[in-house]
Amino acid sequence: MEPRDLSAHTVYRAGRGIEEVARELGLDPEEMVKLASNENMFGPSPRAVEAIRDSAGRMHSYPKSSHADLVEALAEKWDVTSEQVWLSNGGDGALDCLARAMLEPGDEVLVPEPGFAYYAMSARYHHGEVSEYELSKSDDFAQTADVVLSAYAGERIVYLTSPHNPTGAEFTTEAVREIAEGTDEQTLVLVDEAYGEFSDSPSKRSLLADRDDVALLRTFSKAYGLAGVRLGYALVPEAWADAYARINTPFSASELACRAGLAALSDDEHVERSVETAAWAREYIYDNLAADTWESTGNFVLAEVEDASAVAEAAQEEGVIVRDCSSFGLPECIRITCGTEEDTEHAVSVLNDVIEVVES
What we know:
Residues 31-351 form the Aminotransferase class I/classII large domain. By secondary structure, the chain is an alpha/beta fold. The protein is 37% helix and 16% strand. Strands 2-8-7-6-5-3-4 form a 7-stranded mixed sheet, sandwiched between helices. Strand 3 (108-113), helix 5 and strand 4 form a beta-alpha-beta unit. Helix 2 packs antiparallel against helix 9 and helix 4 (90-102) crosses helix 5. The protein starts with 17 loop residues before the first helix and ends with a helix. The relative contact order is 0.17.
């Protein structure tokens, strides 16, 4: 017996963890800096940590009331109905929910290249087909309506990332509206705003007020620092919001995740500190890294080097972990997560030394 043909499926390559790398290289994990996975530099929301501790004694219960409480809080935050909030196991879980709700076998989706690998993976898991629109390096990875619509051929879902990973580029609200107006009425325009808190631009939430073909994805993994508990959600049009009850897996967001998310929503101080430090770190990297960079609105910066693999490997041996973007189809680029001021300064110093050696 064998599984179905998975030859068209790609493998998601997560950034390596400090403990894993430290064991391999014989380094002290306490002296390492990980700036590879776009995690929060200050860790989880302190209020969320407290909520997790307080909730530990309720782990025998299914997350019924906590799920409802978090949905209600998010509905109030975004000024939508509770039915429009689709909680999920991480942002990738929201992608799966939307794929289950939208895709018939053989339906096509349109994804960015480079871009988050799980868009295509989720579509293929649900027996969809994948087409791509190219974000051109020669055009500084500009995200415009023309770039998307020129590649559009009637796909059922069009994935937009704003801010975009790994480049940090954004779509304007008007560009998203133009894409929605330029695609078929049965095409969903899905805007991934996982890094939205780090941008000064407004969310595309306003489009949900008068359209039934735009949905948003948000996550607690980044600005709230809850990547480890896996909590995300989609905001969907009211017209078809009740589809969630038909496609959602039982209790897809855990009790701990829901309680942590509810607490994190009120932790404005943690989010503000994270966003402000990320803005500082972006500017520091632009100004001090010995490599060309692209302006970013996320909590990371993309930089161009001659050999990303060699630079990332050499930096890792010096205790600094950054993302080799070869898996994004950019073998000449590294992505540097915004760290604390101390970690960012140290990482830039190490990278500058490494780049000088590797590229000499």
